[in-house]
Prior knowledge:
With 155 residues, the chain is an alpha+beta fold. The chain is 25% helix and 21% strand. The mean pLDDT is 82.
Amino acid sequence: AHKIIHVRGFLGLDLGSGFVLLLLRSVYGIKEAPQIWYRLLDSFMRANSYAPSDVDPVVYVHGTSPDLRVCVFHVDDGKLLFDKQDELDAFKAKLAAEWNITDHGPISLCVGIEYTRLKDGSLELRISRFINKAAARFGLSDCNPRNVPLTKKEW
């Protein structure tokens, strides 16, 4: 159920009167582009045995622990979480065969969350930078913090 999109033409292109162009692919900037992109991405992910999570349709899951693979997408940015490097490399090759992609290496910061890979292989997530920026934005940088839960003595 793709929507047919017609445009009048582009600056410098004279079609003459009574002619329009039919877009064969989605174009950034048109209001339908995000929906078209999501359908294309969803089709690709399902064809590669990934299913959207029940919590968020742009979080795709494949397998179960300890062989769990998770892919998170936001607009045209993706985060790939794999246990095995060879499987990650193979999936990135599939993505690269479909689209032009850029690998920015291991994740370090995304949506205000800092990611640090620990020596044991686990991933530490911190939001202190995000909290500090939010506190500064609302004039709360110099507030007096308290541990939670409070003890009765602190009430």
